[in-house]
Amino acid sequence: MSKIKAQLASKSWGRMMMMAILIIVMLFSAFSLVKNHADISRLRAQAAQYDAQYEQQLDENEKIRAILDSDDKDEYIEQKAREKGYVKDGEVVFYDISD
Fold first, then answer.
1. pLDDT at 37
2. Rounded to an integer, what distance in angstroms lies between the CA atom of residue 60 and that of residue 5?
3. Count of CA atoms in the C-beta half-sphere (13 A) of 59
């Protein structure tokens, strides 16, 4: 009789271990699925943001290309150079240091 009880206890212990392992694997899979879904959503939002920045840059490039193709390109280039701190030869620059 004790041999049968030992076999039954051994089988039930094995089943409990298998169930525990199965539950752990299922929890890990569920966690991974939720994490991957969140990553996909975040990356899609980031891709949409990059697409918008790309379109904005294309528009800006088109505006600059139009300016450079026009007769006002020298004025535009001078304005951009002055924005970066460049001055013409012999030019005196005064800085306003007042508040």
1. 97
2. 82
3. 6
Pull the structure tokens for residue 72. 């006002």
Q: For residue 68, give every residue at least 6 positions away whose Cβ sits within 8 Å of its Cβ, in sequence order, or none.
A: 76
Contact between 13 and 6 (Cβ < 8 Å): no
Residue length, the chain? Answer: 99
10-residue mean pLDDT profile of the chain (99 residues): values are 64 85 97 97 97 97 89 86 89 84
Q: Is 87 helix (H, G, I), strand (E, B) or coil?
A: coil
pLDDT of 1: 60
- Identify whether the C-beta of residue 89 lies closer than 8 Å to the C-beta of residue 95: no
Nearest one of 60, 57, 76 to 68, comparing CA atoms: 76
Output the pLDDT for position 60: 93
